[in-house]
Amino acid sequence: MADDTAEDPRNWDVATRLIRGGLMRSPIGETAEALYLTQSFVYDSAEGADARFAGTDPGFIYSRYGNPTVSMFEQRLALLEGAEGCRGTASGMAAVHLALTGLLRAGDHVVAGRALFGSCRWILNNWGPRYGIEATFVDGPDLDAWKAAVRPNTKVFFLETPANPLLEICDIAAISAIAREAGAKVVVDNVFATPIFQKPLQLGADVVVYSATKHIDGQGRVMGGAVLGANALLDEFYRDFIRHTGPSLSPFNAWVLLKGLETLDLRVRRQSDTAAELADLIAAHAKVKQVRYPGRKDHPQHAIAQRQMTGGGNAMAGGGSLVAFDLGTQAAAFRFLNRLELLDISNNLGDAKSMATHPSTTTHRAMTEEQRLEIGLTAGWVRVSFGLESPRDLARDIQRALDAA
Fold it and tell me: What is the rounded CA–CA span in Å between residue 270 and residue 197?
């Protein structure tokens, strides 16, 4: 008999979802989630194996297909995102590749925001054309450009918001409405905003992707990724792709990511508060040409950020943990980076440790100079991911490095 008083996880607040979501204890009754380091599983009988492979018994078959630890991670992240389902992947780029190629066939067309991580741009520029998939790149905030780029064979709209590296904001709801009219699916890379501050599915997107390597782990330990959406969509477009091409998430990495999710809300809010405070300090320095931070009123798409980076109505708005600023020249940017003592020079982001990078020579190096200039990425830009150190200590380090720039 069903227990009508049982807790419904969908009614939990974010903090509870991050601790209790997807918890699947073994008969031993462990406190921490169990780590199932197994390749395969055994069956009570030949008939039992037959039922598993036929799909009539929902148990596990092989860790490339599914694993109990990975399943806990997927369920917890789906609960946080407000998605029906989630599929873990080996890395963020595995998630992007899965999300796009699962929806596309030879002869299809993609419309994408021009401002993308370098590897995302490579997939659309170099990988897709090998299989007869074309892409058109548009100015993300320009809704008319999205409309004008649609073709009869357009199947996917792909965007990052905030975008890497200059934190451009796209209007997810408006772009999703254009895509629906065109019969296309919308894929949103939500890694910069995190599910704490932005819920693309609630704004009309069909698929959300994450590099779990970033804020979800948040402590520089493992790689991972995730694709989220409706269960019917995940089954139709991604189930067989995952089974037969093997972009699977390691159970150990999934276990680490589960522990990262427990503190995600606390970390991201603290990092966002620090970023907002230090964005103002950076903007006030005479050597800084311009600053991009979604929480500042001088951000070109500040109004859109205020409207959609609100955690889906379940959380206070936040601008995220990243700040980008222009020092004018590569030489000035390098002088700034080389003078830092607390902040690490690293191309990663979302970590407990604050990190600074020069996108033109690192994360976006694979793009041509023309492509970088199309998104406004000149050689003077620096991108900083703020961590959990004391804001006062970070301010002192940044001030000293700006003076040296």
Answer: 13
Q: Which of 107, 247, 131, 104 is nearest to 187 (CA)?
A: 104
Q: Is CATH 3.40.50.720 the right assignment for the domain spanning 9-262?
A: no
- List the chain domain ranges: 9-262, 265-404
SS (H, E, C) 24-55: CCCCCCCCCCCCCCCCECCCCCHHHHHHHHHC
Q: Which of 134, 141, 131 is nearest to 109 (CA)?
A: 134
Q: Is the dihedral of CA 309, 384, 220, 31 positive or negative?
A: negative
**pLDDT tens, 156-196?**
999 999 999 999 999 999 999 999 999 999 999 999 999 99
Q: Which of 364, 366, 400, 398 is nearest to 379 (CA)?
A: 364
Distance (Å, rounded) from C-alpha 310 to C-alpha 316? 6
What is the tens place of the pLDDT at every residue in 63-116? Answer: 999 999 999 999 999 999 999 999 999 999 999 999 999 999 999 999 999 999
The fold of the 265-404 domain, in CATH, is: Aspartate Aminotransferase, domain 1 (3.90.1150)
Token pair belonging to 334: 């390098």
- ω into 141 cis (within 30 of 0): no
Q: Please state the pTM of the whole predicted model.
A: 0.95
Hey, what's the torsion of the CAs at 30, 35, 38, 42, to 10 degrees?
Answer: 30
* Of 347, 332, 343, 357, nearest in space to 386 by CA: 343
CA separation for the pair 160, 209 (Å, rounded) = 10
Contact 180, 149 (CB under 8 A): no
Tens of pLDDT along 365-392? 988 999 999 999 999 999 999 999 999 9
CA atoms within 13 A on the CB side of 176: 15
**CB-count burial class (<10 Å; 0-12, 13-18, 19+) for 132:** exposed
